[in-house]
Model the fold of this input.
Amino acid sequence: MGGHRTWRLRDSGAGEASSILSHSLARTRAASCCLSSTGTLHNLCGGARQTRHVFRPGLIDMPPRSANLWPRDPEPLVRGSWDADIIDELAPVEGDHVIDKNRYDAFLYTDLEVLLRGLGIKRLLVAGILTNVCVETTVRSADQRGFDP
Done:
């Protein structure tokens, strides 16, 4: 078994976190609120904006500094592979948008900002598994872009 399986939420022993995020996701969808979970961004107007951390085959879009930190056999989080899928508990529903990202910052090299501005979204609630990595980076980036995280 490749070491990369620990990156998958349900296989990483983070079942409780998955349950909490799934419950929060359902509640915010029902209330048309805003949330981000393991990359899910929602807006206060309803609907979800989900981000998914994925790479292209050969990991050609992986940050060079990260290449030595991630296992390479098999390649992790390759778009279309089992470990790049959003887990069932957080699966997008009709009206949700999925943004693929390859950096911790969900805005960097994605069209997330264009999507949010096009929908008139200004306020974001952000949540996730790695608060000190993807969540914090995305919150800081949102603030620098004039959003209210």
